[in-house]
Amino acid sequence: MAEHEHVRVAVVGSGFGGLGAAVRLRREGITDFVVLERAGGVGGTWRDNSYPGCACDVPSHLYSFSFAPNPDWPRTFSGQEHIRAYLERVTDLFGLRPHIRFDSEVKRMTWDGAELRWVIETVSGTLTADLVVSATGPLSDPKIPEIPGLDTFPGTVFHSARWDHGHDLRGRRIAMVGTGASAIQIVPAIQPRAGRLVLFQRTPPWVMPRVDRAITGAERRLHRALPLSARLRRGLLWGVRELQVQAFTKHPEELGFVERLAKRNMARAIKDPALRAKLTPDYRIGCKRILLSSEYYPALARPNVDVVAGGLREVRGSTLVAADGTEAEADTIVFGTGFHVTDMPIAERVVGADGRTLAEAWKGGMEALRGASAAGFPNFMTVIGPNTGLGNSSMILMIESQLNYLADYVRQLDVLGGRAALDARPRAVRAWNDRVQQRMRRTVWNTGGCTSWYLDADGRNTTVWPGTTSEFRRATRRVDLAEYEVLRPSAAGAAGADPREATV
């Protein structure tokens, strides 16, 4: 990377969000951009998460870009290797590789108010950009809890998102810590190889069957020959999930029927009443993400598996102690304990117009105008930003809506002409966030009686969108300039004054 190279747009990350942003920029006629990727390949979370059994819990035809349909998905719910291969194909199909700078982790991004540009320091050099699109995603930085004595453990320890493929699990005494979406896929995948598998369960999840099957050759031929058939399939999958949203956002009491189905699903595989009691949640279904698996409960019923109804509290050498005092011996610990979602590390590296980092600005909770723009961070947009997550549908739908917003953002800068930047007005951010939080009050995520990764340290839901994907698409169709301050270069800005004084 040339020292102090300048580009019009810098995209950070090459997962679905980053690659989608790159495609959209090219479709808008913009080729002066780079994609900064910290790793050596594209794929984001679908590159990093390569654990046994890793797959998507959203149907394949809905978990792909509308502008890059894949008629050849092999299964109704695709595995990690198929999704990563899809992203590689998207990269090549749209000619993105010349724009990608691999092994270029961002160390710091600082707003230069005099020049109206971002100064981006990476491990491979420094560059500047008029606009930054942060697409690092909330599921990119693994979180391992601080467990007393963990450093004394003599065996092998790793997180599900950093799977140690060189570690042979055959005959091992394995401790699986966590019961989230990754854990329920890992447990049945490794149970046959384990000598003993102990699941440390802090909170039991609600689990529904995963109705997965191979997509037949005839179906794939039909989708290739008649693309409309694939679009209809995608539309049906989308429509069903849109109809479900009201139960999650306005009428959580309607989810009782789903709870009964989930309990029947458990009862079919778990015959032991004591184990069934351990695995039965005490919160409303949907409060945490509903997990899909047809193998999880059968695996837990196997004789070489123990379920400990308590999280891991302490490690004493090779002895693991649960919150309820239960002890278990292990030589391998696998953490399926999620990611830094409401405290994304990238926020520590972004320095805005007033010298504060994004992490400092979000100290009281993440918030961004239409999930994209934080006040005090001009020409900085986040893909999969605050309150853009989903509890029941495909994130690709939300990403594409934010790409629409990005495209209009760039158009508005073109219309303004010359050197210009847009900074979200604090009152606009506040008004948007107040509306979102007002709608959040009735949702199952806030009223269901659980503590989930959707909530930040203060108990605020800064993660999920409390509406339909079509509502979000309408809300992000265009940029409303009244919600932004327009910044121009000025002598005052060059002297280090507040850039807002240069507003026109």
UniProtKB/TrEMBL annotation:
EC numbers on record: 1.14.13.-
Gene Ontology terms for molecular function: monooxygenase activity
Keyword terms: FAD, Flavoprotein, Monooxygenase, Oxidoreductase
Domain of life (superkingdom): Bacteria
Gene3D superfamilies associated with the record: FAD/NAD(P)-binding domain (3.50.50.60)
Class of enzymatic activity (EC top level): oxidoreductase
InterPro entries xref list: FAD-bind_Monooxygenase_sf (IPR051209), FAD/NAD-bd_sf (IPR036188), Flavin_mOase-like (IPR020946)
Family: Belongs to the FAD-binding monooxygenase family.
Name of the protein this chain belongs to: Flavin-containing monooxygenase
Organism: Streptomyces cinereospinus
Taxonomic lineage from the root: Bacteria, Bacillati, Actinomycetota, Actinomycetes, Kitasatosporales
